[in-house]
């Protein structure tokens, strides 16, 4: 048999950019060829608005930016533009998101695939620019899909996948791309934008039921009596949310095939093969949690890390499988839920609810980082040490700890 000379494999060298998270998201909006951008300044969304305005001014792509008079009007603009068939983008954070709550609610009930940035920021007077999750978690029961990026690269990729999933006829739900404020949005890091292989990933948005008199009679966000279709309307959202799981898996497989970056759909883990203790979190501080896990592994401690990539749909079964052999869990929680069971955070209590159906129930402790004060790796190491001691005793001294308080935790 004659010898065959192998041809060298040609690999595309990715173009690396040093971008903030807001710049990366703006790039995704451009790639998605969005039609209508609703704008109202509030950090960190202001950074996305400014980049998109520059891109349009420089002729990089064509879209209509509509500057609103408030966050409420801004989300109304995106909602109505989506209803008539436009691919839309909008965003806000903190109390700005809450001001838009009415429009956010109706967008899901009308099954309009708006994609929005949720730039996670503390909920209080707008002077606090610290990072918390509650501005996004307030809407956890509203029918929006929610993905949670860990860095600027993933923020770009998640935005593209958000359009693919939300506009799928099996789903037709709006989508928050949650990005931790400041820690991702304002810090520059290496980002590789997708090359021409991304073409075809996002087909043009063609709504099945556009609000267009030339199509047929359609209503969106109509006022209805509860005796008519209120129950059925909510069931449609429920079914769409259930269907979204399979669509999400399909979308990330196709994204990987086209772009060459692979992501697990719902959970990301590190050092979990033989872990006895697990750190569970999501967002920007995942990298610090992984560093702590690596550091403790070097000391011989069997610690792993699990990070949620999606908050809605919630990856309950994946969490049960990933955490089935651990004895204790330290939850790094940037949410709160005052007066909730055991006074823990919303993130903590949903994890506990998911693991209630697990075959083995590990000890779960909540470590709250509320108010926007930035934690450090020493706080995360302390969380693991407290969890380890509780497992060794067989019971915790308490379930919830506030590790960044200046005074005593009472």
Tell me about this structure.
The chain has 410 residues and is an alpha/beta fold. It has two domains: 17-259, 3-Layer(aba) Sandwich (Rossmann fold); 267-402, Rossmann fold, CATH 3.40.50.920. It has helices spanning 21-31, 45-57, 71-83, 94-99, 101-109, 134-137, 152-166, 226-259, 286-298, 316-322, 346-355, 377-393; strands spanning 17-19, 36-39, 64-67, 88-92, 115-120, 145-148, 175-180, 189-191, 267-270, 277-281, 303-308, 310-312, 328-333, 363-368, 400-402. The strands form three sheets. It has a seven-stranded mixed beta sheet, sandwiched between helices. A six-stranded mixed beta sheet has the order 9-11-10-13-14-15, sandwiched between helices. Strands 1-8 form a two-stranded antiparallel sheet. Helix 9 (286-298) links the parallel strand 10 and strand 11. Helix 1 (21-31) crosses helix 2. The longest helix is centred in the middle third of the chain and has 34 residues, at 226-259. The radius of gyration is 22 Å and the shape is globular. The termini are far apart.
Q: Return Rg in Å.
A: 22 Å
User: What's the CATH H-level superfamily name of the largest domain?
Assistant: Thiamin diphosphate (ThDP)-binding fold, Pyr/PP domains
Output the CATH class name of the largest domain.
Answer: Alpha Beta
- The percent of residues in helical segments reads 25-40%
| Proportion in β-strands | 15-25%
Oligomer status: single chain
Catalogue the unreliable spans: 1-13
The average pLDDT is 92
The CATH architecture of the largest domain can be given as 3-Layer(aba) Sandwich
Main β-sheet description: 7 strands, mixed
Shape type: globular
Spatially, the strands of the biggest sheet line up as 3-2-4-5-7-6-12
The CATH topology label of the largest domain is Rossmann fold
Number of spatially distinct domains: 2
Number of helices: 12
Beta-strand segment tally? 15
